[in-house]
Structure prediction request, 271 residues.
Amino acid sequence: MGLGLNKGMKALWKGTLTVALVSIPVKLYTAVKKRPVEFHLLHETCSTPLKYERYCPTCQREVDWSEVVRGYEYEKNKFVTFTEEELEAVFPKTNKMIEILSFVEPEEVDPLYFENPYYLAPEAGAEEAYVVLQRALLKTQKVGLARFALRDREHLALLRPYQKVLTLHTLHFAQEIVQPDFISLPEELELDRRIMALAEELIKTYSAPLRLEDYPDRSTEALMALVERKVAGEKVAVPPAKEVRKVVNLMEALERSLAAKGSRKKKRLAA
Prediction:
């Protein structure tokens, strides 16, 4: 069954996906490939990249990686250290296992909880069980709440189908979510019905099917174009920042927004 990923992709993790008494050997791959434009810190005088050293101020010397251990600061300048074996023993059950805790409705998980996405691929011989689970999730419109360990930390995650494969999306723990109770709003705010009607109309007018491919990474593209111009020796003039118009009258702003959308639609139809 053809479930192969790009040949250059390396698995981040190998283990077992367990649902009750069903075990599926799987591999974990990153699902997102970032395209950052990386900048180096240079010495302005000679454009030489700066170096950073692991320096111990007590011993007054550079420290090799073989001498580095992990430590937790429990009081100011007081640490306890850990070996790799001790850290792995913290969660031995989930160390090589993705355990499905329950199946839930997708709407029950607020997007605020989503962290990093990964692809799951079956090991050789586990393709049938993998596809059965993927199709069962599609059929029931459910997602799996899972628990597993990755990079010295236990994670909650959401198992869900995407196209023809399974994805594992790590979640923030509830304790990590900052509650918005520090944002103060009036207890009772009487709203003008006409303004609410215009706001609802604005949302309906600007509604469209979601096509994320229609929204490219403009900042990276613009930055790379700037890099090419600088490499070519061009002098780049910085344009003045656009002044953001302040909303003085909400009703007027809503009406203008609707009018602008209508005029753009007419132009598209005329083209």
